[in-house]
Amino acid sequence: MRFPGKKPENDKIFVNYRRADAGGFAGRLSDSLTSHFGSSRVFRDVTGIDYGADFEQIIDQKIEEACAVIVVIGDKWLSVEGKDGLPRIHDPADYVVREIAAALESGVVVIPVLLGGAQMPRKEDLPESLHDLAMRNAIAISDERWAFDVARLAKVLAIDVAGSVAQGKLDMLRTIGLAGLLACGLFTSWKFSNAVVAWSATGGSLKQAGFTPLDSAILFFGIILAGAVSLIGAPMMEEHRRKYAYAAIALATVGTISPFIYYAVKNVAMPSASLVVNFCASISVAIGMLVLIALSGFREK
């Protein structure tokens, strides 16, 4: 179980690639994944190693910290040759081979990503240390459908890599909305209850007993806040749940304006009754908002 706010120890995405095969695409892919998961979560050797650092030690460390390794495979992945004229894929000292072998041995999620129409390598085309790679399901990414394909990859990764940038924002928005509703609801209920007890004992008006128009408006501020966070978060949510966020926005709008109009019309003739109606309306709207926020889920699309 992952607790909110607790960062897993192994939470990195390691991008494995061969420069002579897919260097440019690997950089573009890393940048796209960074927009989903944040720069501290995505590692690529060119951008992730400081000058003077031990390359081999850093690579091993990042593999250990990874919960997912992406193996970028282009159309030259198998055929790139070393200085000896032999395919580098069969050189056990090759960094690409070592990184993949270490990832497969460690048991982290390994996802082959096929670029530009590249085919998944067959088991017999790979050295023994990489045979398991041929058994992994691959995701194809094309230049024409880049945004769609990367979003699909990010969704697969999100199963194993908690805490994307968008999901972090949605979690924060949901927390703000719920906290605002609950805090304002508890305060308003406490003020109303105390005022009703005093009103019953002394008579007079509810306002004189301690429940003022400002007190009755407090919960509406929480409702407006919850509607605002639903409006901000809706475009980032799962499409099939977005309707609940829009319903929450509509409820917050109508449920705030209508009671205020009623109070403006009735407060002179019925000062206490109009405050009671406002309180009941705000509680009903707040409960409806809580239900709609729960149904919307605030989960990343």
Biggest sheet, spatial arrangement of strands? 2-1-3-4-5
CATH homology superfamily of the largest domain: Toll/interleukin-1 receptor homology (TIR) domain
| CATH architecture field of the largest domain | 3-Layer(aba) Sandwich
How much strand content do the residues show? 5-15%
* Major β-sheet profile: 5 strands, parallel
Mean pLDDT: 85
Unreliable residue runs: 1-8
State the CATH topology of the largest domain: Rossmann fold
Helix-residue proportion: 55-70%
Helical run tally: 9
Helix and strand content put the structural class at alpha/beta
SSE topology string:
EHEHHEHEEHHHHH
For the structure shown, list the relevant keywords.
301 residues; alpha/beta; disordered N terminus; Rossmann fold; rod-shaped
Explain what this protein looks like in three dimensions.
The protein is an alpha/beta fold. The model is unreliable at 1-8 (pLDDT under 50). It has helices at 19-37, 45-48, 55-65, 95-106, 146-158, 165-202, 213-233, 242-266, 271-296; strands at 12-16, 42-43, 66-73, 109-115, 139-141. 56% of the residues lie in helices and 8% in strands.
Give a brief outline of the structure.
The chain has helices at residues 19-37, 45-48, 55-65, 95-106, 146-158, 165-202, 213-233, 242-266, 271-296, and strands at 12-16, 42-43, 66-73, 109-115, 139-141.
Produce the secondary structure layout.
Blueprint: E1 12-16, H1 19-37, E2 42-43, H2 45-48, H3 55-65, E3 66-73, H4 95-106, E4 109-115, E5 139-141, H5 146-158, H6 165-202, H7 213-233, H8 242-266, H9 271-296
Parallel strand pairs: 1-2, 1-3, 3-4, 4-5
Helix pairs in contact: 1-5, 3-4, 6-7, 6-9, 7-8, 7-9, 8-9
